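Collaborator request, handled under Task 6.
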Amino acid sequence: MVACANLHSLATASRDPAFFAALQAASHVTADGAPVRAAGRLLREPAGPRVTGYDVFQHVMASLESRGGRALFVGSRPPVLERIRANAARDYPRVHVDVLSPPFGDLAGEPTKLITARVDEFRPDVVFVGMSAPKQEIWAASNAHMVNAMSIVCIGAVFDYYAGTLRRAPAWARRIGCEWCFRLAQEPRRVWRKYLISGPLFARLVWAELRVRRTQRSDG
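Structure tokens returned to the collaborator:
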């Protein structure tokens, strides 16, 4: 299971035990965003390189292309998924692609049975999940034992980016860590809470942890 943790994810996980447990259960969690890496440097914790969901998606698809692998995309709306299928046929012609738009809402019960049945039928190497955080990570962690695939990769908004239904920030904005500004300008009603509330919360969490560590060093 692969998850990409940005500041919103980590701020949310600090108040959501199920999400926190899901991130801990992942085999790989990448530092998705400049603020996460900056916090790692400040706390002297190795956060690793900045790896976004789109980076993971491109790397995995290129690997599947090299050997003619299989990828199942689960989440989003049918029009988005059909554009993903068309774009993948153009960009990764050797990758066998299938898509599934599960019912919106709670994924427990019948929706999960629908997903696992499609996985058993299609036999993908990788299941890409695009349901937004924390829903996608919690579902993946809870159901990994029933998903017959090598990897479950949670990539959220990458579905819309790759389909072209949402424009990704230009390279210069990504380089200086301002991708969030571009996203906020595009979808203010949808993501304002993610950045304008989670951002300050994440900063307070980092500051609180820094104070604890300084106190511990002083006491020692």
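The cover message to the collaborator said: "The first strand starts at residue 2 and ends at 5. The CA atoms of residues 106 and 135 lie 9 Å apart. Please let us know whether this matches your experimental observations."
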